[in-house]
Amino acid sequence: MSRPSLSAPRRSIDHHRPSMDSGFIAGDIDLAVQSGWWKQSNQVPPVLQGRKDIYFECDESTTTNQGEQTMITRETFILFQDYSQTILTVRYDPYDPSTVELEQRHEGPPKTMRQDQMEEAYDTFGRKISAAAIAKKDQVVGDGSAASFVLEMIRPLEDALWPISTRSYGALVYSNMANASTQQHDAIRPGDIITIRNAKFQGKHGPMHAKYSAEVGKPDHVGVVAEWDGTKKKVRAWEQGRDGKKVRQESYKLDDLRSGEVKIWRVVSRSWVGWQKKALA
């Protein structure tokens, strides 16, 4: 299967070494040339191997110089959870690996989306995600985990940017840090993605105002927004993997968040981070 071509024109790239106060995650890493990681397709340097807070893709090409020297060129694009990225370029002769050359460069996160761009992303992806989630009610999706359900809602969408583990799912719509700090960039819509980390909800619910306390997302939980009630600050979400494996609807009253964080994301196009469309497998 051919690799996705990711080396299309990108945003301007700062080729200088980033300063320690660059304000984003991507920065120079130990390339560990001697470890030989670069001989393998779809691999990253040892310092990044096993990391659950990155997402990466590779683009590889092979050229032959007048039938004599063969050169492999591989670019690895590594996205961090703030959507800054590191681009690694490897060039080497597979018959003489000692010729290897490695380079790294870095880009900051993309600009915050304008409201019209947020609405366009919703029309392109959010509506489809919402419809797909509704269709999975009472089913077990993937391995039954919360993250598997949401990934399977995104996977079929051509040109959708995949999540960075369970940390980031696109453009930030809403953020709530234990109700000490909240921000909102657009209306919360069905088909947006809700992530909950190390959260404790405490309050009253039901007609009898019974007290309740619930811990969610230790460490991570994720679902698809089904409905948003702005007056009650209540999110209904399609989810699985918390109370049983089947997809069901759960509600979260955001005013009852006592600790931890709740974020809501809008799935966006790959072009937001300067990546080309990827052919679906």
From TrEMBL:
Stretch list, region Disordered: 1-21
Domain BBC1/AIM3 cysteine proteinase-fold intervals: 103-276
InterPro entries membership: AIM3_BBC1_C, STAM
Name recorded for this polypeptide: SH3 domain-containing protein C23A1.17
Source organism (scientific name): Trichoderma asperellum
Taxonomic lineage of the native organism: Eukaryota, Fungi, Dikarya, Ascomycota, Pezizomycotina
